[in-house]
Amino acid sequence: MPSRDRPRALYGLALICLCLAGCQARSVWLFHPHGAVAAAEFHYTVIDFAIMILIVGPLLVATALIIVRYRKGRNARYDPHFKKSRVLEALMWGVPIATVGVLTYFSYQAVYLADPYDPTAIPRSLAEKSRPPPTAGRTSHFAAYPRSNGTVRHGPQVDVNVITTDWQWVFIYPRTGITTVDRLVVPVDTPVHFRLTSATVVNDFLIPELVGEIDIMPGMRTKLAMIASRPGNYRGYSANFSGGGFSWMGFTTTVVSRRAYRAWTRKAARAPDRMTYAAFDKIAKPTINLAEKPMYFSRTQKGLFDHVIRRVLTGRVYETPLRMTENMTKPLYVKVLH
Amino acid sequence: MFVHLQGSWNPIYGRLSLHEIPFKTQIIQGAFFFVVLTALAVLTAITYYKKWRYLWEEWLTSLDHKKIGVMYIVLGLVMLFRGFIDAVMIRSQQVMAIGPHSAGYLGALHGYLPPYHFDQIYSSHGTIMILFAITPILTGLMAIMVPLQIGARDLAFPYLNALTFYLTAAGAALVMVSLFVGDFSHAGWVGLIPLTELPYSPDVGTDYWMWAVQLSGIGSTLSSVNLIATIIKMRAPGMGWNEVPIFTWTALSTSVIGVTAFPVLSAALFMLAADRYLGTHFFTASFGGDLMFYTDLFWIWGHPEVYFVVLPAFGIISEVIPTFSEKALFGYTSMAVAALAIAGLSWMVWLHHFFTMGAGPGVNLFYGAATMLVGVPTGVKAFNWALTLYRGRLRFDAPMLWCLGAYALLLIGGLSGIMLAMPAVDYSVHNSAFLIAHFHSFMLLITFAAIAGYQFWFPKVFGFYLDDGAGRKAFWFFSAGTLAVFGSLYALGFMGMTRRLDYIPFVQWRPPLIAAEVGIFFYCVASYYLVRQLYVGLRDRKTRPAGADPWATTRSLEWLTWSPVPAYNYPVLPVVHGRDEWAWRREHEYVDRVPDHYFDIVMPKNTSVPLLLGALSFGLGFGLVWRIWWLCAVTIAGILLVVIIRSFDNHTEHTLSAALVAKLDGGEGGLPDAPGSVNPYPSPMPVPFFAKTGAVSRCADRVASTLREGVVAPGPLGKGARR
Predict the structure, then answer these.
(1) Which value, in Å, is the radius of gyration of the alpha carbons in chain A?
(2) Contact B357/A215, CB-based, under 8 Å?
(3) What is the pTM of this model?
(4) Residues 6+ apart with CB under 8 A from B619
(5) Which of A114, B205, B233, B651 is least enclosed, having the fewest CB within 10 Å?
(6) Closest Cβ opposite residue A100 in set B24, B286, B375
(7) For B655-706, what is each residue's pLDDT tens digit?
(8) What's residue B675's pLDDT?
(9) Smallest CA–CA separation between A42 and chain B, in Å?
(10) How far is A56 from chain B (nearest CA, A)?
(11) Is A223 in the same domain as A118?
């Protein structure tokens, strides 16, 4: 038996190495956060995992050793009456309870740092930026966050109103009146505050490298805030199934320098199309934007976001056609943008 | 009509028309021919071997809890196969449809399944696996083993037991019919709201899902009632709460969940039905409806449901590990308390399914902490199993291997579960492949344990062994498959992949998806070996009969009676002396006693009423799905009529005379071995309560009080012993 076990163990080891190598790859988005909120989430993922592996790891190893040692025929000590031990039972209840206590403490820290509505990770990261790094050599995710002393200045911020339709993303920049579809452009190192609602069904907003999820619900408004620490293109998509076009319901988030952002705003403000209530109705009809072709609108009719919520509350639906849901041979019976 | 329906409707056929049968879809054609051919083969075989009468009398109309349990498990295995095919299709579609340049077949843009077909497949996969595969298999095991473990002749309500089975079967039949007539829900097994509302699901798929789940949910509620009544009222003399076998404890905890949680599901589904049929606004986004209300209600049922299926699995592990460790379960009291604690905590955690809805940090923190608390009793169970193994004499028969696999999955799934319980972590992996991998760790834990339970108790119920070698091979391939599929999905979760994707937009997700596909291949091999295990067992059944105690080191009460178990379970109800009654008797050398008295046994008569009610419920469900109102009216009237007629039937029981029981059992001048059984073991009997060992004195009062009611009359020590 042992001779057969060895290659199995070797394969296991090779597999683990492969997995660890995989974690180094940049494609493992959650391990390479580029925003303070995502970084906080990842930081606590690591803490949570580390604490749990302290319990689960030894238990797994101990069980494996027991299984090897007490195999029948090995003549290890056999004690059929070992079925009760006050000390061990106190430990097995006590240790998990204590662990839950510790984890809850960390969970308490994390839940405020990554609170979608008002993540304290954002002011902390801004405060961190404005002072020299505390200790050289430590990586940024693991560095202790400086305690907030309530004196963080509120610098510039960008507001974006997000409306999901079947199956596109509408981003409204209320300050500039620009509206984009399936393309989000935000400046680097600047807090971005989202207000989100849906014209049809529930979606989840997610940009894995920048910020965690928040539900987007029809007739309701949720909020989310994020900050990006490095320019680049980041993938965003819905994480909650919303119908036939769900798999193609993505958008690109482009993080640019503040100067480039201002330039982009000026350029977008010259786009010929305008986003009116009627134009929105057209976009909100079931549509699959296969290649995620972005659309830009230079002006937006005032109060579109609240208008959509109000309309949904008073019964506006954008019906999914029956022939689409019943069909299983043709891909889609809706407008498809290539 | 109260609502706006897309498509046509007429008073005779409702929404049904020839156009609703997907003739043109090749995949469904294939499935249709497969099902028709299989059904023809089965029907032909039954006719050829002239087994129709046997099937009707011995199985379909039987009220015997063991036979109903076996039918539950067969139903579960058939649906498990269907759910597995769905899984194969999901994984294949995802591995084929990666990136914009991937090819499309059979009319799909990418891969071979167009979006709404794929969505139906993952929805039916979830619905089937949880409600029509795992739940029936575990309910079946509980229906068989609980009465045996507590020394009862049947469940408290044998007729109700059959009814619950046929309600579940009717639900399963609705799911199967949806494959060929119309379509199934595309809104997930959870019924994502408001996607399930009429404007976004104008087809009948959601109705199929809704009524199928409704029927099986009513079945589960009633079977929980049955189990609770059985466990509380029908324990054998001498079995106090401290002597209840651990599987029965978990069955009790599960049933408490079942009886409290399932009505919530029923209510939520009835409200959803009102929205879809009457145009109400319980869960719509508009006119004062509240869609998160549905989500709340669903998960108030949905999370306890997870523990509803995981607790019996824990019970099975707690029975198998001591048997193959040749020692008693460590920390019996802790185990029982932990099972009840899990059941209790299951009510406090449902909000963790939607941490992302935008609740405040305080709310999320509370539910996160409550969720972590569930880890405490679960951890206690893991520690107890490890300590049960410690200083044992471990044998690795197939059931033991499957339990150890379940144990490993518990630790992995528990670790990822605690990670998800931290709201901030959940924000980044909610609805991702990581979550899929997490709950499949638990679902597979349950599957591993259920397979262990099936292999462990099979010799008891049927009287012969399954093939051990094939069972072990199946275990290794199944484990390899689990590692490949769900290891990959854990990784994909961190890579950002979300669930329910018909098309994979990012090519960097390809390698893990390929690894997962390889895992599916391992699962296929494993299922071959599982079938082979049963086949070899059946083939060699004459040469490999199992005794009363087929594993030689079993512990609880059920191993004390014949294998296969006679219809009346115990010729004379046993008296219980210790926690592990059979182990206690083995230790004190009381295993070879036979009764010196036999008594008349009252047994329920066969009845076809539950089958009829199940068929009518199926008709009602079908009528509701297609809005064929006359069919609904007819079936409702039929159900009422059948129930009323049955209530006038006063002759629902028959009596086996003491002489007959004695003859069957081989005592009092009867045959040395009961007919139809090649059991070499003498039938055991209650040990007289005047036993000289001190261990029984504690039970003596209870036995005496039962005696006065005339349930059991043990003779003096030694009399009737067959030495």
Answers:
(1) 26
(2) yes
(3) 0.90
(4) B631, B634, B635, B638
(5) B651
(6) B375
(7) 888 888 877 776 544 444 433 333 333 333 333 322 222 233 333 333 333 3
(8) 37
(9) 7
(10) 6
(11) no
CATH of the domain at A319: 2.60.40.420
Q: Do B106 and A329 touch (CB under 8 A)?
A: yes
Q: How many CB pairs under 8 A join A and B?
A: 346
| A278 pLDDT more than 50 | yes
Query: Is A98 in the same domain as A165?
Result: no
Would the CB atoms of B331 and A331 count as touching at under 8 Å?
no
Residue at a domain's end among A93, A113, A131: A131
Rounded to an integer, the average pLDDT of A149-175 is: 83
> Does residue A217 share a domain with residue A288?
yes
What the block records as the tokens of B255 is 């049933």
User: Residue A111 is part of which domain span?
Assistant: 23-76+84-131
Q: What is the pLDDT of residues B561-606, one digit of tens each?
A: 888 888 888 888 888 888 998 999 888 887 777 777 778 888 889 9
Single out the residue in A96, A131, A166 at which a domain terminates.
A131
Structure tokens at A311: 């309309």
pLDDT band at B646 (very low <50, low <70, confident <90, very high): very high
**Cβ <8 Å between A52 and B418:** yes
B419 contacts on A by Cβ (under 8 Å): 45, 48-49, 52
Specify the amino acid at residue B35.
V
Residue A5 lies in a domain: no
Instruction: Give residues with Cβ within 8 angstroms of B30, minimum separation 6.
Output: none
Closest Cβ opposite residue B386 in set A49, A62, A214: A62
Position B719 scores a pLDDT of: 33
Domains contained in chain A, number = 2
Instruction: Give the strands of the sheet with A250-256, arranged side by side.
Output: A183-187, A250-256, A232-238, A203-207, A211-216
Average pLDDT over chain A, rounded to an integer = 87
CB-based contact, A139 to chain B, within 8 Å = no
Average pLDDT over residues A261-287: 94
Chain A partners within 8 Å of B109 (Cβ): 331-332
Q: Are residues A90 and A201 in the same domain?
A: no
% of chain B at pLDDT higher than 90? 72
Structure tokens at B699: 């039970």
The 10s digit of each residue's pLDDT in A279-316 is 999 999 998 888 889 999 999 999 999 999 999 999 99
- Tokens for B237, please give them: 């003399």
Does A241 reside within a domain?
yes
In this predicted structure, the answer to whether residue B40 has a pLDDT above a threshold of 80 is yes
**Distance between CA atoms of residues A285 and A154, nearest Å:** 39
A113 and A225 assigned to the same domain: no
> Are both A177 and A92 inside the same structural domain?
no
Residue B128 has pLDDT above 70, yes or no: yes
User: Does residue A323 share a domain with residue A179?
Assistant: yes
Interface test with B, best of A26, A65, A95, A107 (most B CBs within 10 A): A107
In a domain, A180, yes or no: yes
Report the pLDDT value the prediction gives residue A2, as an integer from 0 to 100. 43
- Residue B544, pLDDT score: 86
Q: Which residues of B touch A38 (CB under 8 A)?
A: 428
- Per-residue pLDDT, B704: 36
pLDDT confidence of residue B621: 97
Q: Is the pLDDT of residue A124 over 50?
A: yes
| Dihedral sign of CA atoms B130, B134, B140, B144 in order | negative
Interface test with A, best of B334, B383, B435 (most A CBs within 10 A): B383
Q: In terms of domains, do A46 and A171 share one?
A: no
Neighbours of B506 (CB within 10 A): 17
Check CB contact of A261 with chain B, cutoff 8 Å: no
Look at A241 and B499 and tell me if their CB atoms are within 8 Å. yes
pLDDT band at B547 (very low <50, low <70, confident <90, very high): confident
